[in-house]
Design goal:
The structure is a homotetramer.
Chain A (H helix, E strand, L loop, with lengths): L2 E6 L3 H12 L3 E7 L3 H11 L2 E2 L2 H6 L5 E4 L6 H10 L3 E5 L6 H13 L4 E4 L6 H11 L6 E9 L6 H7 L2 H17 L3 E9 L5 H4 L5 E8 L4 E7 L7 E8 L2 E5 L7 E5 L2 E4 L6 H4 L1 H15 L9 H20 L3 E2 L5
Parallel strand pairs in A: 1-2, 1-4, 2-3, 4-5, 5-6, 7-10
Antiparallel strand pairs in A: 7-11, 8-9, 8-15, 9-10, 11-12, 13-14
Helix pairs in contact in A: 1-11, 4-5, 5-12, 8-12
């Protein structure tokens, strides 16, 4: 059965999901809502769906599932509204920037036996999936160390930082999720160091732009996350897993892979300069996974609990930086 | 203005083009025709277009352009039919396997002042385009040598070979076109050597499976094409251009780019195993170019004459092999 | 003037240095000493030099400089003996495993105005030197982050671990020196996490086999060191430096660089499996630097103080692990 | 038994061989001869050997073997002189530029039952050897196609070209030998195309600077050689072998392997800019092979006949270019 979708939010990520739903033979885009009517109408025109209000979508009998791409501070309320309305929910990360609000929201989801999937898109990147598949196939033996390098092409607008929740909640949260995905074991301790090196204005926002985090699991596995808000050469997204039998790593991606050789050396083009082009395939694959899950094929994973755990690790990292010490996840859980 | 399309042929390449048309905001898929009604109906259902016969499409006032994906032996007739009907025509290569038939067909196109673009998809591959762009930007100086390595993952069914026109007309033709695209100068001589190494059955079909060709231009530039019908490691598609100032090369593409390191070494996955996944982006880009051309933006290139030239070079290569000598293109033109 | 050398210790690293001295036109190998006469005699025979006792070498008027390759616990005593004897001294790392002993030894060197160079060979690796040269040339702007991955091919014999001083003093010490070499600024804090993942026997020796360390400088620059005692794919030695303007990285080295492509993928051979083959060029270059320094051309660097600092950072790392917190270098300096 | 060597010619390649002999525990450099006494004396001083005339070396009872590094036009005479004197002979390529002279020389060697090895150094490059070893190990199945790309960093002095014998005898001859090494089967036909693209002055010397050659064997295996006298990015030396089971290729070599990433892309340094640094290891290995052969361990290969065959293929290539046709080796053999 084709799943009938309502899309909440017609911004740039909303457009990505609209296309993914349309291109999936198992799904149909029925309606779109946005605070800006023009944005909703553009999507409606392109894909032949209706424009409805959020409340209308919640009340629509011809809608099975929704995708929430609205601003972060509306996520938790909308999740609750739609699970109560009996719709399956896919929500962009994060559920909320406040740990207690996330917990309360997940309690509602559980009470309603709702279906909730959180948009940690990187788990669906074909290269990272292939790394995970190699681990599962035993290619590198028992996992021991994970090294994640994750650098943005450039600093977002300073005014954005203030409402981002800070680098750990906004940026590292993806890497925390990737760490859990690769380690295959829950995190026990968090040790973080943070600096402002890219732009002094970051400091005035109470944020950092350059951080390193060491995670450990109960069995002693370790993961290092290395983040910077600026990589002039593009969106640097690498994952490397060392096991007892070897290593598996995902290489960086670039839009074109040519090489020019001159007396100055051999030059390949920079990496992608934008997360949406870097993760094009991942966005389509995560929606396909959600559609399959709603159709009863497989789990709606990553779950709300995965979303909660990402935020929790971010809180631990902040505490570690503030107190110059290793923080046990159990202190904040 | 959105260009209104009729699709002739609903096979695997037809599906690719149907998707490209639908995803392009400047185009609309109006109708599809196929000898097998079920195939046409599947596309019609997925994209919301009509099923019509070929003659109906030729007579349709709501159709501006057609894409010809039918069997090779129908191409020339359909091109003539549709240019006479005043439709812009995109035709999969080759126009025909017979040189005279191609010339006659192009005469009709010229007489009708028709728009005809031929599907040499590789010109639209982002990596090869980037190579060409580097040449145009002067990154490697004056072009001197082009090296094209083009190997299929495996031999097609032997029964296909008989109607393929042989390796030069079926496979090398793409490389002849790439050579012209990169050299930026017409070919003057063709020298080819051919063997049967992959499967003795190829010989019984009067064909070859392993060939090398050297092309020269009037100014002495050279191009080497190296073909094999079998590369166990995947679809090997490399182009390298040496100029007075340096070299530019397009790397091979693989579906996932990870690396597994063990005591046995560092292993990356094989290349794409199929031309349709290798050239996904190229197919979309060539249709976008055709749409733009019909809309008056840019040329419908590669043209029918490009298609003719590819076939002509294949004929020269065959003659070169038969006579163990270098053949001037002027002998056959 | 050709520098006349005495070699103390005729083991495997002694042989490497004997060859480096002989191949350098500015140097001459005059005598060799070793507790095992046969080892000394083998070198003497191959390179045509004399066998003498350590005391004879100290008293030899025809010796300008010595290379100390004897067991670690003799280093500090020999350094003192030879600087007092007026010889220039090159000593393999570490000076001693005890911080106070190192300090006392360096006090003697200073009092005698002796020349002392410490064998942190990696600074002389042509690839790491090229990274440093790019930083100096401004290719990546201001240094912000250094990422060092350093993994041994396999665990040394467990009995060795007991006298090694532990992973931080034995293995990470090289990376601490590399961090200082690349950061170009002294380390302010050390935060380390350590596990036993490779072999439980490591734990019984009170040691670790898998560690991650974050270093920070006063200005907030960070360095991550990731160590494992086991990398089945060979000796993994990578350095990557992120700056305000870009990144520069040294690739891993392998004895042969071929690639085999089959249906199983593209495989390159493992890395070097031994530090002596990996750092062949570095060993020759460090001795050449020492010879030049003794000849008055350039500094005898890395110095005894560099050796001290490496050990100090190892102590800080141990304390960090023991106390689960960030340790300021000033606490132990 | 250590082989006692006489070195004929103390130029740059003579120095390379002097070092190789000295560093080999199985050999001893006894004497050196050169038309320029100062050149011979420099080597004698550095390695502690005698200076003698060529005739004295031929008459020396304490000399077992000679290395001929004198000008090309003396090679054949010296080979004859020394095999008659009962010395094993290693001779730099070519034996002579004249096919008949080579044949006559080899007849003398055979008559004297002399030991003659020819300096096709590339067979001893560790990367190319590893390619051959993979073929021998069956990693790629039956060899079908060999692709050799061989480009010099820059045109030699024009005055050199006149006495070089032309590009096929001077440069491609190495690739002809590599083709035979990799194909493992004798060449049956030669088809070549040649241009002057780098410098018009090359034409005035009756030479070419840009050539492509297709070789075939009796069983239909093919090899393509692509040569240019100019590659701004360094000494480009690649070999790729396609077999029924896969492909094996040797990558290019560079002095340092770092990568700098900025907004302009990812840049690695150029390749080696000189054949002597590119083939450092190969030169040492070929002399070691010769020493072993004189000591009765293994063959003195490549042999004089290998040298003859390289020249013969060059003659065939010249004829192919002149006559615009495929030439059978049997026409000239």
């Amino acid at each position: 059965m084709a799943i009938r979708f309502g899309l909440l939010g017609a911004g740039r990520i909303g457009k990505v999901h609209a296309k993914a739903v349309t291109n999936d033979a198992e799904a149909q885009l029925v309606a779109v809502a946005d605070a800006f009517p023009a944005a909703a109408e553009a999507i409606a025109a392109q894909y032949g769906c209706a424009v409805r209000s959020i409340d209308e979508i919640a009340a629509s009998a011809d809608i099975d599932a929704v995708i929430i791409c609205t601003p972060t501070d509306t996520h938790a309320d909308l999740i609750e509204l739609f699970v109560k309305a009996g719709k399956a929910v896919f929500c962009e990360k994060p559920i909320d920037l406040n740990l207690d609000r996330v917990k309360a929201c997940l309690a509602v989801v559980r009470a309603e036996k709702g279906v909730l999937m959180v948009g940690f898109n990187r788990r669906f990147d074909p290269h990272f999936r292939a790394v995970r598949a190699q681990i599962d196939a035993g290619a590198v033996g028992a996992v021991e160390m994970v090294n994640i390098t994750s650098r943005d092409p450039g600093l977002p607008p300073i005014e954005y930082l203030g409402r981002s929740g800070g680098i750990f909640r906004d940026m590292t949260i993806h890497d925390f999720d990737m760490a859990r995905f690769m380690l295959g074991e829950e995190i026990d301790t968090v040790t973080a160091r943070a600096s402002v090196l890219v732009d002094p204005a970051v400091k005035t926002e109470g944020d950092f732009d350059s951080v390193n985090v060491i995670l450990t699991t109960t069995s002693g596995k370790q993961c290092v996350i290395s983040n910077s808000r600026r990589a002039t050469y593009g969106y640097d997204q690498r994952v490397e897993v060392l096991g007892s039998g070897g290593m598996v790593a995902a290489e960086n991606q670039r839009p074109v892979s040519i090489e020019v050789a001159t007396a100055a050396g051999f030059t390949r083009p920079p990496l992608h300069d934008f997360f949406m082009t870097r993760y094009t395939e991942a966005y389509a694959a995560e929606i396909a996974t959600f559609i399959a899950a709603v159709n009863g094929k497989g789990a709606a994973s990553p779950s709300g609990e995965d979303g909660l755990m990402g935020l929790l690790l971010a809180e631990c990292a902040l505490k570690s930086v503030a107190e110059n010490r290793t923080v046990s996840v159990s202190e904040l859980a």
